[in-house]
Design brief:
By secondary structure, the protein is mainly beta. It has three helices and 42 strands. The strands form nine sheets. Strands 11, 13, 14, 17, 20 and 22 form a six-stranded antiparallel sheet that branches. Strands 12, 15, 16, 18, 19 and 21 form a six-stranded antiparallel sheet that branches.
Length: 579
C-alpha cells in the first residue's frame, strides 16, 4: 500500500478516501540548540474529510525512541479532537530541551491511536512520526583545533533508526549487535577489540544474496561548511570476496557518484579480523546537501561480512581562547547528565571551559564566564612572589551544585597567559606545578574584600599545544564554582588546616565513632557537616574544643558519607564509610 500523503494545505481533495487521520509528515529533523531554553516543535495532524462523530486522537511516545523522555524532550500534547463534520487540521507539540552535551543524533518517535466514538474516522498510513534531534555542539580539542560532528552514530542506541536500510529480499540486512550477540558461523568475525555495539552484515552466516546491502544516512547539510570528512571504525576481510565501501549521493540516493572502497583489515585469520580507523574526505561535495551510505556487496560469492562503528560526518573547527572578562557575554547551557559540554563566549564564540559530567547529577542551567583577566601572576590571600596564582580566573555557576559530584573541569588559557604567570614566579614554578582550586562562594576576582571559600584543591593535568598557542589545565572535582590556578604553596597559604596532608578521618571505615585528626594544627575548624551520597545533610555541629573532633556515627546507616569541615576562611570535604 502506498503511503498516504496529505493534499496541499488549503486545497480540497476532490476524491477523499474517507475521514482517515494522519500526520502530515512521517519524519522531521530538529537542530538542537545549546542554551538553557527549549524549542516547541509543532507537527500537523490532518483528516481528509469531516468525521461523522467527534474523533479523539491520543498520542504516545514509542519505546524505540533513542532520546530520553523528560530529559531530552517532553510530549506537550496528549490528545486532540476532530469535531464531527470538521476537516480542520490539529496540532501536536513536542518540546525539545536544548543542551551543550556532545552527542549523536537522537530520535523521538510518536504514535497515535483513534477513538471514533461510534463514527467513521480511522487512522491513515502515517500514524507515526519520527523527529531526529541533530546535535549542534562541537568539540574544542585541547590541541586548539577540533571536529564538529554534523552527523554521528555510535550504535549504542541498539538500533538503526537514524538510517534507511535496504537490501535483497532474501538477505539478512544491516543490524546492530555486540560481540556476545554476533552470529559467528566460523569464517567471519572481528578480533573482539571493539566491546561496544556496532552495525554489521554477515554473509558467512546467512549465505544469502548480499549483492546490495546498504544503510543510508538522513540528508546531511554541507552547504555552510568549507571542509568535511567522514570518519569510522570498521572490520572487513575480502578473502572470500565482497566489497565494502562508503558511498555518497547528491540526488537523494538515486545515484552514488562517490564510492570509496575500503581496504581489507584482515590478516588471514577470518575469525580474528582487526578493526581499523579511516577518514575519507568529502571536500569535493561541500556546499551541497548529501546522503552517505555504508555499502556491502558480495559479488555473488559466499563472502564474509562488514562491521562498522563510530560513524561520524564532521567539519574542522578551531576555537580561539577567551581572554577578556566577559560577564556580559557569558555562556549559559544545560548540564543534565553524563556527557561532555563546552562553554563559549556568547558573542565571540571563544572557548573558556569544558566540563565532563561523570555522574548523573543534574546541574541545570550553568553560566560560565572569565572573571579576571591578565597575562601575569597575582597575590592570593596575601601570598607574595614567587607564590603567585595566574591572573585569569573562571566562574562556573550551576543552578543546582553538587556536594559529592564527579565532574572534570578543563580551563582554557593562551600560551601567553601561562607563560606570563611562569615569568612572574621568576622561574620558581612552571606549568607542571599547577593546581586548580575550587571556591563555592562566588566569582574569584582577587580584589580586596573578595570572599573565597575553598572547598577543593587538586593537582592539574596540563596539556600544551605549542602550534596553536593553547594550554588546557584540568582536574576532577565534587562540584562547580569559582576556579583559580597556581602552585600549591600559593593556593594553600590561606589556611594550613585545609591542606589535605594535615587532616584525616579515622578509623575509616568506622562502625562507632570517627575522629577528625589534625597534624600539627592548633586552630580548630569552626564546624562540621555530614552528608549522604544524595547530598542530604544528616548531621551538623560546631567544633569548640578537641572533644568535638570525635563524632558518634552509630545512628548512621551503613554506607558512604561526606564530612564538610569549615572555618571563617575555607572548607574541605572528606569521604568516609560507615560499616
Amino acid at each position: 500500500t502506498a503511503q498516504w500523503v496529505m493534499p496541499a494545505c488549503g486545497v480540497d481533495d476532490p476524491n477523499p478516501a474517507g475521514p482517515q487521520i494522519s500526520f502530515q509528515t512521517a519524519s522531521m529533523d530538529v537542530n538542537e540548540s545549546t542554551d538553557c531554553s527549549f524549542q516547541d516543535i509543532n507537527v500537523t495532524v490532518g483528516i481528509l474529510q469531516g468525521p461523522s462523530q467527534n474523533a479523539d486522537v491520543t498520542f504516545s511516545v514509542n519505546g524505540s525512541s533513542t532520546a530520553t523522555n523528560g530529559e531530552d524532550f517532553q510530549l506537550m500534547t496528549s490528545n486532540v479532537t476532530f469535531p464531527a463534520g470538521s476537516d480542520t487540521d490539529q496540532m501536536m507539540t513536542v518540546r525539545v530541551f536544548n543542551d551543550a552535551i556532545i552527542e549523536s543524533a537522537e530520535t523521538i518517535v510518536v504514535d497515535f491511536s483513534v477513538n471514533a466514538n461510534g463514527g467513521d474516522a480511522f487512522p491513515g498510513n502515517v500514524d507515526q512520526v519520527t523527529l531526529t534531534i541533530l546535535n549542534d555542539d562541537y568539540i574544542a580539542a585541547s590541541a586548539g583545533s577540533g571536529q564538529m560532528p554534523i552527523f554521528s552514530d555510535d550504535f549504542e542506541s541498539g538500533n538503526l533508526s537514524s538510517w534507511t536500510v535496504t537490501g535483497a529480499p532474501t538477505a539478512t540486512d544491516w543490524a546492530v549487535t555486540d560481540n556476545a550477540g554476533f552470529p559467528d558461523a566460523g569464517f567471519f568475525n572481528s578480533d573482539g577489540s571493539n566491546t561496544s555495539q556496532y552495525a554489521f552484515v554477515n554473509d558467512d552466516d546467512c549465505n544469502c544474496d548480499m549483492s546490495d546491502e546498504r544503510m543510508m544516512t538522513p540528508a546531511i547539510d554541507l552547504t555552510a561548511v568549507g571542509r568535511a570528512s567522514v570518519n569510522l571504525d570498521y572490520a572487513f576481510s575480502n578473502t572470500y570476496g565482497g566489497v565494502a565501501s562508503i558511498q555518497l549521493s547528491i540526488d537523494g540516493g538515486a545515484t552514488w557518484p562517490l564510492a570509496a572502497s575500503l581496504p581489507s583489515t584482515g590478516t588471514g585469520d577470518e575469525s580474528n579480523i582487526p578493526f581499523q580507523n579511516v577518514t575519507i574526505s568529502l571536500d569535493d561535495y561541500v556546499g551541497q546537501i548529501v546522503h552517505l551510505s555504508v555499502h556491502f556487496g558480495d559479488g555473488g560469492a559466499w563472502a564474509g561480512g562488514f562491521i562498522v562503528d563510530n560513524f561520524v560526518v564532521q567539519t574542522p573547527t578551531h576555537a580561539n581562547v577567551q581572554t577578556a572578562v566577559n560577564a556580559g557575554t557569558s555562556s549559559s547551557f544545560g548540564v543534565s547528565g553524563i556527557g561532555t559540554s563546552y562553554a563559549y563566549d556568547s558573542a565571540s564564540g571563544d572557548v573558556m571551559v569544558s566540563l565532563v559530567n561523570n555522574d548523573t547529577h543534574d546541574y541545570g542551567c550553568t553560566e560560565t564566564s572569565v572573571t579576571r583577566a591578565g597575562t601575569g601572576g597575582a597575590s592570593y590571600m596575601g601570598s607574595i612572589a614567587p607564590d603567585l596564582v595566574a591572573d585569569k580566573t573562571f566562574y562556573i555557576n550551576p543552578t543546582t551544585n553538587a556536594l559529592t559530584g564527579d565532574v572534570t573541569v578543563t580551563l582554557y588559557f593562551t600560551e601567553a597567559e601561562i607563560a606570563g604567570w611562569e615569568a612572574s614566579t621568576s622561574g620558581t614554578y612552571t606549568r607542571s606545578n599547577l593546581h586548580i582550586l575550587r571556591d563555592d562562594s562566588g566569582p574569584i576576582t582577587l580584589i580586596p574584600g573578595n570572599t573565597i571559600n575553598v572547598v577543593e584543591d587538586h593537582p592539574a593535568t596540563v596539556v600544551t599545544d605549542a602550534a596553536n598557542g593553547i594550554v588546557t589545565v584540568s582536574a576532577t572535582f565534587n562540584g562547580l564554582g569559582g576556579f583559580v590556578v597556581g602552585p600549591f604553596n600559593a593556593l594553600s597559604i590561606q589556611d594550613d588546616v585545609f591542606n589535605p596532608a594535615n587532616i584525616s578521618l579515622y578509623p575509616n571505615p568506622t562502625n562507632t565513632d570517627i575522629t577528625i585528626g589534625l597534624n600539627n594544627i592548633t586552630d580548630l575548624p569552626d564546624s562540621y557537616e555530614i552528608y549522604n551520597v544524595l547530598g542530604q545533610r544528616i548531621m551538623a555541629n560546631e567544633i569548640s574544643s578537641e572533644t568535638d573532633l570525635t563524632i558518634n556515627t552509630r545512628a548512621l546507616q551503613t554506607g558512604v558519607y561526606f564530612m564538610k569541615l569549615t572555618n571563617d576562611k575555607a572548607s574541605i570535604v572528606m569521604r568516609f564509610v560507615k560499616q
